[in-house]
Structure to design on (120 residues):
């Protein structure tokens, strides 16, 4: 009888210990996930006639300020996407576009709206 009771206590202790370890592992994984930093980049252009290099240069400068590690390919792709969207815009005098990537959100504004992204 006494042996059975010790066996139950041992099993309950083992189950609680495993549950505690699993819970600690899950909270550690959640903490690591929350540390991924996503940067916001705002580019103000005078007109929509910007070059890819101008946009890419501003992206690099602001991303380095955020301390987000991005490859040159990611910068060039974002600059290219921005210029494509700017080129498709209906109003040549002003506008705002957003591009979301895995590591940063990019806002570009030009003309009368060029300070729009500044406040983001």
């Amino acid at each position: 009888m006494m042996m059975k009771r010790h066996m139950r206590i041992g099993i309950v202790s083992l189950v609680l210990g495993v549950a505690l370890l699993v819970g600690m592992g899950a909270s550690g994984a959640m903490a690591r996930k929350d540390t991924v930093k996503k940067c916001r980049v705002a580019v103000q252009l005078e007109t929509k006639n910007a070059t890819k290099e101008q946009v890419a240069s501003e992206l690099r400068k602001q991303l380095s300020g955020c301390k987000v590690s991005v490859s040159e390919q990611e910068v060039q792709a974002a600059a290219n996407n921005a210029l494509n969207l700017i080129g498709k815009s209906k109003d040549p005098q002003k506008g705002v576009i957003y591009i979301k990537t895995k590591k940063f959100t990019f806002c570009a504004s030009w003309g009368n709206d060029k300070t729009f992204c500044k406040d983001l």
The two ends are 70 Å apart (CA to CA). The first strand starts at residue 39 and ends at 45. Confidence is low (pLDDT under 50) at residues 29-34.
